[in-house]
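Researcher: I'd like a candidate sequence for this fold, 263 residues long. If you have to choose between options at a position, lean toward the conservative one.
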């Protein structure tokens, strides 16, 4: 698996760098909009929360990571696209046959690929978090937001917690992209289906089934990154995400083991 991991890191380095750059760009963009566009008098947004954090919210210990938390969905979409592209590309180009000639154990080939992709998105989230913090400190004086609470131990704890939450959610987004790519064997189809379902499909389901948002994937991801809601606690959402991740991973490996790679 180590050889496959090293090989995939080399093959994926350019796309991975582009993906990490896009994640960081989204974080900077959302952080800028958060600090420049906040409105202390804004009414509550969906679910009773403020549409944009106010100055008081941003000055709190966890306000430092407001941009990264708000950009979690967009970062997740990038991860889905990266996983889907890497997995489906081997089938589209026929390189899966060459990979299995060098290493006939399919599980090891896929395992090395998944580990390389996980390393890429984890690094992307870490870079995004660092750049988001720098952007927040740079924008705070312009927006008139106090940074006093950002240098406390509580701020460090909040920063680590937010980064880990976004990282975990991003990994689940990626695993969803991997299983879709294994099913469709097409990067464009996997990305389209994944984004369409997570951003549109589940919204339509909630119109006819109100409580579905509490346990469907997109709603669970949002609940987890926000630290839980009144209906679903943080711990419950973490368990649901772990189950989703396990199901996606198992399905991806089973599909590769069972399906004919020559069709």
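Model: Candidate sequence:
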């Amino acid at each position: 698996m180590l050889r496959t991991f090293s090989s995939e890191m080399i093959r994926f380095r350019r796309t991975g760098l582009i993906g990490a750059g896009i994640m960081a760009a989204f974080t900077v963009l959302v952080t800028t909009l958060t600090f420049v566009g906040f409105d202390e008098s804004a009414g509550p947004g969906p679910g009773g929360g403020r549409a944009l954090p106010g100055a008081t919210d941003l000055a709190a210990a966890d306000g430092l990571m407001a941009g990264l938390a708000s950009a979690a969905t967009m970062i997740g979409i990038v991860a889905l696209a990266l996983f889907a592209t890497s997995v489906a590309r081997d089938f589209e180009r026929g390189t899966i046959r060459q990979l299995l000639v060098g290493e006939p154990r399919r599980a090891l080939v896929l395992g090395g690929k998944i580990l390389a992709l996980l390393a890429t998105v984890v690094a992307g989230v870490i870079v995004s978090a660092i750049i988001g913090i720098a952007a927040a400190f740079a924008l705070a004086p312009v927006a008139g937001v106090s940074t006093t609470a950002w240098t406390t131990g509580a701020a460090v704890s909040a920063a680590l917690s937010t980064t880990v939450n976004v990282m975990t959610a991003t990994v689940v987004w990626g695993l969803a992209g991997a299983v879709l790519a294994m099913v469709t064997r097409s990067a464009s189809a996997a990305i389209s289906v994944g984004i369409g379902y997570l951003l549109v499909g589940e919204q339509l389901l909630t119109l006819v089934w109100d409580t579905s948002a509490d346990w469907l994937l997109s709603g669970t991801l949002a609940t987890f990154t926000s630290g839980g809601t009144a209906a679903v606690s943080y711990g419950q959402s973490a368990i649901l995400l772990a189950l989703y991740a396990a199901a996606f991973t198992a399905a991806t490996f089973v599909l590769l083991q069972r399906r004919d790679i020559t069709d």
